[in-house]
Design a protein that fits this description.
Length: 338
């Protein structure tokens, strides 16, 4: 089997960065997330490949938090698009966990299928390669196995890394994977290493039947109780690897300007506010319900898989201890009228 010695990891990242923007899990002061490798400052930043998960997922590599879309010139009643900013420069997400890869695959469904393609997202994904990091020891908040994610054999990846002690097994899964492998071929060795066994999940949850049951629970009183602690801060949506809501804004000076989009959240009151002032989800409970129905019912109905990937980040960052596992359990236990 091909392996990459951990002692050669930084050299490999340097080589890959010569022709690609390489995003790696990193601790930067108080922040942890996926940052470009060429921003790494030795002695100040910390590479976090051994950590189970960093707070910010790698979705920003394909759906940036703020993204310029096009520049235009206005002349009377006419508007001329001067330039669009569809960015297809080569990028590599290095060390993504299976739950985060599943989040990107979910966004692929939204932005690239069902007769519609988001050209900005498509451009970024066309130049994107994913090198996943297999998980063998789930953390206390992990439940990806319940949300149709295989943490040992992540789907939709180009290369899978497997921790073999002092080296990573390098398992190529696609043509893109072959291409990046060729770049660091001189650093790879042929060597047999022992791989760990998958340890049991601590967090237990049963998602089966939840999407179907939720179809009957839109007006269920359970939502009043579950939503009561929520302060609509939106932290859950910003750390989630599969949340993809965005807002489009304009920046103008005189007769010229540009449009850009930025991450938004269904937990914010203004997100669903209409131009005339009405709001179909004006109450906190309604926004809370929308988030969990989208994660657990609506997305499953449309695309055949839940939008939640079981990473557990939302449970970690929530200031009021809202827990999606407990919500799934509550739905399973709830009484409904036939």
């Amino acid at each position: 089997m091909k392996v990459l010695s951990k002692a050669k990891l930084e050299e490999a990242l340097n080589k890959l960065s010569e022709a690609n923007e390489v995003f790696v899990p990193m601790q930067k002061k108080a922040q942890s997330g996926y940052f470009p490798w060429n921003s790494f400052v030795s002695g100040q930043d910390e590479l976090m490949l051994e950590a189970l998960n960093v707070y910010q997922s790698p979705k920003g590599a394909v759906l940036p938090q703020t993204e310029k879309m096009y520049r235009y010139q206005q002349g009377g009643m006419e508007i001329n698009i001067e330039e669009t900013f569809e960015d297809s420069h080569p990028t590599i997400i290095f060390g993504a966990r299976a739950c985060d890869v599943k989040g990107i695959l979910a966004m692929d469904e939204v932005f690239l299928t069902r007769g519609y393609e988001d050209s900005f997202y498509k451009a970024r994904r066309s130049g994107n390669t994913i090198i996943a990091n297999a998980c063998y020891e789930p953390g206390p908040n992990c439940f990806c196995n319940a949300m149709e994610v295989d943490c040992v054999n992540p789907a939709g990846t180009d290369v899978i890394l497997r921790d073999g002690g002092d080296a990573y097994v390098w398992e190529v899964k696609s043509e893109k994977g072959e291409a990046v492998t060729a770049v660091i071929a001189g650093l790879l060795e042929e060597k047999e290493v022992s791989l760990p066994q998958l340890k049991p999940f601590v967090q237990k949850v049963d998602y089966s039947g939840v999407a179907e049951k939720l179809k009957t629970m839109f007006e269920h009183p359970l939502w009043d109780k579950l939503s009561e602690p929520c302060v609509n801060c939106g932290m859950c949506t910003f750390v989630c690897p599969s949340c993809y809501c965005f807002d489009i804004q304009v920046k103008m000076w005189g007769d010229e300007g540009y449009r850009f989009r930025a991450w938004d959240s269904c937990m914010f009151e203004e997100y669903s506010r209409e131009a005339g002032g009405g709001n179909p989800r004006g109450a906190s409970k309604e926004r809370f319900r929308q988030r969990f129905l989208h994660k657990l019912e609506f997305f499953t109905e449309r695309y055949g898989t839940p939008l939640c990937t079981g990473c557990g980040r939302c449970m970690i960052v929530c200031p009021t201890d809202i827990n999606i596992v407990r919500i799934i359990d509550a739905v399973k236990e709830a009484e409904v009228n036939d």
